[in-house]
Design a protein that fits this description.
The chain is built from twelve helices and ten strands. It is of the alpha/beta class. It folds into two domains: about 240 residues, Rossmann fold (3-Layer(aba) Sandwich), CATH 3.40.50; about 55 residues, no CATH class. The strands form two sheets. An eight-stranded mixed sheet has the order 1-2-4-3-5-6-9-10, sandwiched between helices. The protein has a two-stranded antiparallel sheet with strand order 7-8. Helix 3 packs across helix 4 and helix 5 packs antiparallel against helix 6. The longest helix has 19 residues. It is globular, with a radius of gyration of 19 Å. It starts with a strand and ends with a helix.
């Protein structure tokens, strides 16, 4: 196994450092995967607290004979420049670089161009079908802790879960803040694009347009017409998304499709690591505990890729 330093988007305004993890050489071409981050700025290892799930996936899958490409997220490197861009959407933040990464793999003579996959984690999982549909043209799609719902619905659920965990005084304050955010989201799709670009919904920089643009390209639209292989995974102790609304939401949409595989993992959290506290209020403490992606998850993804 070897790590090769690479750059994604060398000819663009936003070149990104990355690592291509190559299995021990054989005479055969390698299947390969692109790793796509969850929400927020993130480095190539998708470092969260003291955990590095993308590094774990890269090393684990490479040991199985699968090449893995990971790279710094654009907002991790260029966030200060991008935060004032009122037109920012997931296309600029995530999609464009994932497409460049897929193209990078296809041009590498060591890769099997007919076996290029995408693994999207969290929001990356939500976007994976769109990335595929907008030019990724992957052999198969792996969605880890994703959701078929809109991003704002998930955020409001998370806020309400926090609200229900607070004491009476904090609950009163938080309820007003959550109601204010909710009212902005309620009007989201009534705004024109220009109105949405000038309306902030979270903090000083997060614009309504970011949510509107993503919501107008739901993953459901891309998944409905898909006949290529899809693998959907979630941890049972994931407190950032819901088994009922997200994992089972995918099942309601796609459960009868022969091309879709589902797996729910007991006692694993949002990072596919063993659950520690299992509460959204203790998320920071949970992710400060250094762990690794469960080996069964790596085995299952590897087996699935080699079955295609």
């Amino acid at each position: 196994m070897a790590d090769e330093k690479i750059v994604i988007g060398t000819d663009t305004m936003y070149p990104l450092n990355g690592v291509l993890t190559i299995p021990n050489q054989t005479h055969e071409l390698f299947p390969a995967v692109v790793l796509v981050h969850g929400s927020g700025p993130s480095n190539m290892d998708e470092k969260i607290g003291d955990n590095a799930p993308f590094k774990d996936l890269a090393e684990g899958l490479s040991e199985k004979g699968i090449a893995v490409l990971r790279y710094d997220k654009r907002t991790f490197v260029y966030g200060k420049v991008m935060k004032n861009d009122t037109r920012l959407s997931v296309r600029e933040e995530t999609i464009e670089d994932a497409l460049l990464a897929a193209e990078f793999l296809r041009k590498d003579a060591r890769m099997d161009a007919s076996k290029i996959f995408i693994i999207g984690h969290s929001m990356g999982g939500m976007l994976a079908p769109r990335i595929d549909g907008e030019g990724g043209n992957f052999t198969g799609i792996i969605i880890m802790a994703g959701s078929p719902r809109k991003l704002e619905e998930i955020l409001m659920d998370q806020n309400n879960e926090v609200l229900n965990s607070l004491n009476k005084i904090l609950k009163i304050i938080a309820r007003k803040q959550i109601a204010s955010i909710s009212s902005k989201f309620d009007n989201l799709y009534n705004l024109s694009d220009e109105e949405a670009k000038s309306t902030t919904v979270l903090g000083k920089y997060t614009r309504a347009y970011y949510f509107k643009e993503m919501g107008e390209h739901p993953s459901v639209d891309y998944l409905n017409g898909l006949d290529k292989p899809v693998f959907i995974l979630q941890g049972e102790k994931d407190f950032q998304i819901s088994i009922e609304k997200d994992f089972n939401g995918y099942k309601k949409l796609l459960g009868d499709r022969p091309n879709v595989t589902f797996k729910l993992y007991p006692n694993l959290n949002h990072l596919f690591m063993p659950s520690v506290y299992g509460e959204i209020l203790k998320a920071k403490k949970e992710y400060k505990v250094a762990q690794h992606v469960d080996q069964q998850v790596i085995d299952d993804i590897s087996d699935w890729i080699f079955s295609i």
